[in-house]
Write a structure and sequence with these properties.
Chain B: Keywords: Membrane, Transmembrane, Transmembrane helix. The complex is a heterodimer of chains A (484) and B (71). Chain A is mainly alpha-helical and 484 residues long. Chain A is built from 22 helices and no strands. Chain A has helices at residues 3-21, 30-35, 42-53, 61-69, 75-100, 106-113, 117-150, 154-172, 174-204, 207-217, 233-246, 251-257, 263-272, 274-293, 305-313, 316-354, 360-384, 390-399, 403-412, 418-437, 448-467, 473-480. Chain A is globular and about 65 Å long. The chains are: A mainly alpha (484), B mainly alpha (71).
Chain lengths: 484, 71
């Protein structure tokens, strides 16, 4: 076993110890397990939010997109920042609403706001359908990172990782994800700084010469293509709008927000989290460097641009740290995805509509059991049918943005009805699914998700006005208070 | 102008500027050592904490105002 593999395994072993120890001495119940008792202050909440947001995409997708598409990749550094601006306004009142009504999942909001367990169950099923391919994508990313950096077979690493994740999520729930995020963030920030600075300096003497060389050898590559071309300015603008709306709409991302101790904790994080985006930009420069140093990568191989350069350039112990950090960059989001998938099925589907008399303790026990089931399903797909869920994953990224109108309008608009929200959501998701299945990456030069959101909003408002029941003043009053 | 409108105007400045400015900052040129689109986006990424911080200060009533309201 090489030095890199030893270092990477040591990192993962340390993460497991932290994950198991995170449980602490408090009695575990559903609220403690899923949202850590809503107890996190600014620092731990910042770490958790960064932990669930910055996944294997940081090492693979971001630099790969830069390698393949040049300057358009800078949207990756921008969309999170736009999302934090939006979150400054809508997450604090959502957190207040969730705390007041003891909500622990995204679907709980729909159940409670619209007084409809069936609507909650529908959104839970849609959410889980979008999250399982996301788990699979993270597992595949983990396999690629570990195999490239340590030489450990990717299937072996995926199986080992999911067993470890299932154990510590079962034992410690959200607390495991948060405390492992501390280790993950330290390693991720450290390795991205080292790799992101060292590679341009090593090959080009600095960023300026790197950009000079790319612009000389590939004129136009670092600009955005003219309007009308795929990935032109209209695509970039619309993608920033859609992806910033979608940012907190995956059920696991929204539930992580419930862990905050107060509304001000959430606002402070909206202020500080954009700084993390500057780090992501470093990986884009590695992608640009790879265009010159390892030319000729095609298709999904472009995702290996950063790893190829790291292995080629860095000493093996640094490569091992990148491998370990890359593994944790998958493990933390997978933990949250598993936790939320299991809770959505147990609380919003089983207790919500199938067995309404199930106790909270029963839901807690079932959620823990379902962690194992969801883990097994995602792992089987990742090993045996890695391509089968690709369309669902692509649909999911724009699809979750369709929750945005119902959640935000649900907080501020009294006349929003269940029929309006459901119609907008279903039609929005259908439009996204159609564009994915028909391979329409752009519509009139725009991100198709934007069209879906516009139709969604129009239908949500129109149908709500037509079906307004004018009977939910309490909900509106408590939700609207202090939105800005 | 209402305090909440001022807060929204300040907080959304980076959002609007970053997206709207792409119409002008998307060519193959360079600003400082960065491609111009990279410069534009990273500039607003760096300024967003400042704008949100200022908005947050405006949003929270000062201690004196709070005391006055309590009276």
């Amino acid at each position: 076993m090489n030095a890199g593999a030893v270092v990477a395994l040591a990192v993962v072993a340390l993460a497991v110890v932290i994950g198991l120890a995170a449980r602490g001495r408090k009695q575990m119940n559903l609220e403690q397990w899923t949202v850590a008792g809503r107890s996190y202050g600014t620092l731990l909440f910042w770490v958790l939010a960064a932990g669930e947001t910055y996944s294997t995409f940081t090492y693979l997708g971001a630099s790969g997109f830069a390698y393949a598409n040049g300057g358009a990749a800078f949207y990756i550094a921008g969309y999170g920042t736009c999302a934090f601006v939006l979150s400054y306004f809508f997450l604090p009142p959502l957190w207040r609403y969730a705390k007041k009504h003891n909500l622990v999942t995204q679907a709980d909001f729909f159940t409670h706001r619209f007084r409809s367990p069936w609507f909650g169950a529908l959104t839970a099923i849609v959410g889980v359908a979008f999250m399982i391919p996301y788990i699979e994508a993270q597992l595949l990313g983990l396999g690629q990172i570990v195999e490239t950096t340590t030489g450990i077979n990717r299937v072996t690493s995926m199986v080992l990782a999911v067993v470890l994740i299932a154990v510590f999520v079962y034992a410690s729930g959200m607390k495991a994800a948060a405390w492992v995020s501390v280790l993950k963030d330290i390693l991720l920030i450290g390795t991205v700084l080292v790799v992101g600075i060292a590679i341009p300096v090593h090959y080009f003497g600095g960023f300026e010469h790197l950009i000079d060389t790319v612009q000389t050898q590939h004129p136009g590559f670092l600009g955005v293509p003219a309007p009308g071309s795929p990935l032109g300015v209209p695509w970039m603008m619309s993608t920033l709008l859609v992806t910033s709306a979608a940012f907190f709409m995956f059920p696991h991302a929204l539930a992580a927000m419930y862990t905050a101790k107060s509304e001000q904790t959430i606002r402070r994080n909206a202020i500080y989290l954009p700084l993390y985006q500057i780090l992501i930009a470093l990986t884009l420069f590695v992608g640009f460097a790879a265009v010159l140093v390892v030319p000729g990568l095609k298709g999904s191989a472009t995702n290996g641009a950063l790893l190829s350069l790291t292995v080629k350039t860095m000493p093996s112990w640094v490569v091992g740290l990148v491998g370990g950090a890359g593994a944790l960059a998958a493990i933390v989001p997978i933990s949250l995805l598993l936790l939320q998938s299991a809770t959505l099925l147990a609380r919003n589907v089983y207790q919500g509509v199938l067995r309404p008399k199930t106790s909270e303790l029963g839901v807690f026990r079932l959620s823990r059991g379902l962690v194992v089931v969801v883990t097994a399903v995602a792992l089987l797909f990742a090993i045996f049918q890695p391509a089968l869920l690709v369309n669902l994953l692509l649909t999911g990224q724009n699809g979750v943005s369709q929750f945005f109108p119902a959640i935000v309008l649900g907080l501020v608009w009294r006349r929003l009805t269940k029929a309006g929200a459901a119609t907008g959501l279903v039609v929005g998701v259908a439009i996204v699914a159609w564009t994915v299945l028909a391979s329409k990456n752009t519509l009139w030069g725009l991100n198709p998700g934007l069209l879906a959101i516009i139709v969604n909003v129009v239908l949500t408002v129109g149908v709500s006005l037509a079906t307004s029941e004018r009977r939910e003043p309490t909900v509106r009053a408590e939700a609207v208070e202090g939105v800005a | 102008m209402k305090r909440s409108a001022v807060v929204a105007a300040v907080a959304f400045t980076p959002y609007v500027a970053m997206i709207g400015g792409l119409l002008w900052f998307s060519g193959d040129g360079r600003i400082w050592f960065l491609p111009e689109i990279g410069f534009w986006i990273l500039l607003w990424v760096a300024l967003t904490p400042v704008f949100l911080g200022v908005a947050d200060r405006i949003r929270r009533p000062s201690a004196a105002e709070t005391e006055q309201e309590q009276r």
